[in-house]
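Usage example:
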Amino acid sequence: MPRSRLPLILLFLLPVIGLAVLVYYLVAALDPARDPNRVATVMIDQPVPSFALPPLDGERPGLANTDLDGVVLINFFASWCIPCRVEHPLLTELAKSGVVIHGIAYKDKPEDARAWLNELGNPYTRIGADSNGRVAIDFGVYGVPETYVVDRQGRIRFRQVGPFDPTTIEETLKPLLRELRQ
Amino acid sequence: MIPELGHFALVLAFVVALAQSSLPMLGAARGDRRLMAVAGPAALAQLLLLAVSFGALTYAFVVSDFSVALVVAHSHSAKPLLYKISGVWANHEGSLLLWVNMLALFGAAVALFGSNLPPALKARVLAVQGMIAVGFHAFMLFTSNPFLRVFPVPADGNDLNPILQDPGLAFHPPMLYLGYVGFSMAFSFAVAALIEGKVDAAWARWVRPWTLAAWVTLTLGIGLGARWAYYELGWGGWWFWDPVENASLMPWLAGTALLHSAIVVEKRDTLKSWTILLAILTFGLSLLGTFLVRSGVLTSVHTFASDPARGLFILGLFAAAVGGSLTLYAVRAPALKGGGLFQPISREGALLLNNLLLATACATVFIGTLYPLFLDGIGGATVSVGPPYYNTTFMPLLAALVFVTGIGPMLAWKRGDLAAVLSRLTLAGVGAVAAALVAWRLETQGPILAVAGIGFAFWLLLATLIDLAGRFGLGRGRPAEIWRRAVGLPRSAWGGALAHAGLAVALLGMVGTTLWAAENIRVMRPGETTTLGGYDYRFDGTEQVSGPNYSSDFGRFTVSRGGAVVAVLTPEKRFYPVQGTPTTEAAIKTTAAADLYVVLGDPDGQGGWTVRVFHRPLAMWLWLGFVMMSAGGAVSLSDRRLRVGAPARRGLAAVAARPA
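Running the assembly step on the lines above writes:
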């Protein structure tokens, strides 16, 4: 074909090419592992926000960012949260294996949280009571349960939205903790 | 039994669609008249079968047959009859059945009224319609069957989401689908023309009525949706730039461009590539919208289904339909021979500019809607795109469009005299500036954009009136002559003027409700008064009322201005026990100047109620504008020149001879 026709054909092919690109990204978006409602956290590699929360009662200590020492987990929970119940045994196991977990009771009455912990057991080293949810906002929490992994330098390295499951613990959490402890 | 009949009818329709999509196409390629003749009866048979199927599903809903899973999920015995019926299409599966019914309706219309079409073109058009039908029937039968049964049969259903139990919303999907499916007709014509390798004035004349009909219903559908959002959702707004709202706006923008581009093909035999591409893109955008709503890739209040498997199927349909047609376009379009040449300053030039502006506007909405998805796909940050983006990109394009629409219709074909047109429009310019000054005087606190918007709207309104008056020579000759000329003016001229004026009026409403809006949120106790926009709202307390399937707190507000009572507004807070969801029914008092809008929120447990009062200036004109645009399109559609089927062939020759 004459050379002058070539750019014309390319021009007319542009819509098809554009469509192909679009379809590619739409197929990628259909990946079942992708949840459009999930908001990615911007806190990864950011320092833990500074906070100082009162304790649930006079006996146990409260929780502040200055209390964080070494590689720890911060778990947001509530007595009114059903998935928190589901993940509780997994947290207890983690605590038994030597992982330090701090708890933050999110928008919960202290007496309800205490009753909940008395019933299910307490895997937390320290617990803060975030009754009005302000600290949760600083973390970017939008639901419970959520768990944050904090490294030795006080930076957030991982966030788990929703309850833990054994697979995530074995395949993601434990290797990360091993890596951070080195 | 009846649901099974409906299911069987759907399967039969699928088989008929298979025949309709293949045999006539083969016949057209070979010139075999008998194979081509399969198209008409097949289209009619499809309509009949799908009507039976839809009737069966409707019957199941109306008699509350809870052995059908769909009825259980979306209906309830205590629901009012209108919503039992609208519940048929207020869900994923049922709405698909409505969709294919519309498709069959248009196909049958071409089969019945398209006797003037050349047999080969008609066969190809119906074949492409058949292909689309095959895709959607397969989608339903294999992934989204409306007739699935459930055992054991539950005692009652889950009820329809209460916010959908509303007359406006009952008709929103049918109108929208008429629009989307109507554009499938333009698509079919475009693909058929590409296969034939011929796009001419006759083709454009056949395409225009279908495109216009689709455009009218889509405009109404979008208007109904916006109106519903305004009075039902209680946030005082009517457009959120939600991805699914955008999914309906994009085909509308492309469809508007198509409508106007087809005029140029018909009158001047040029802009053919543009028109074919627009026809493909408009329907492609409808399909994309269908995909976005039903696949779960985007979060939205509108999303129907969120099933990746279904999403993949629709994506396949979309890719096949649009990919196939765009490839055909790439191969065939370069060979389309253009006809008339024209100067840049001419009506063709203005319509080309119109195409460009609308296509760019469509592209900005497209980018805004899909950008978060794209960014997520390449592993970038999560962003959300909202009003700030659209205000910066879409509004200037809209302003440019409104400006050009005032001038374009007055330019002559082939070579226009811009200076002469602008001098005729001096009055419009003066009027626009005057209106803007008045607006500024009345609302000195408002943004300057609002004043500019009012100016643009009046520019278009006055320009349209000047153009119309010029066409029947207002001011020349005796009143009787003027009257005769006015009545003799083709309906498409009246329709076009009405539609353009409607755009101007709607723009007034858009400016008023968004840029001059005011809001007041407070906790009020009975007896307290609050003020907004010059009106006093006195809260007179609430009472408990019961409806057919809900209980309600009925609030009473006395609205007065300067001491005189203007209205008594009764917002409600309803609770639907079956679904366990509350809804708010806003109370709106409409005046020409503004809407007074009151919403009752939650009680604070101590005798007070959260009350939101909105002041929305010029709201009424927005809805009037929508109606005017649709009415303009309908008037244009009734023009005899567009109805190719009637009059008889003798009349057809006369139509061709009439001056453009």
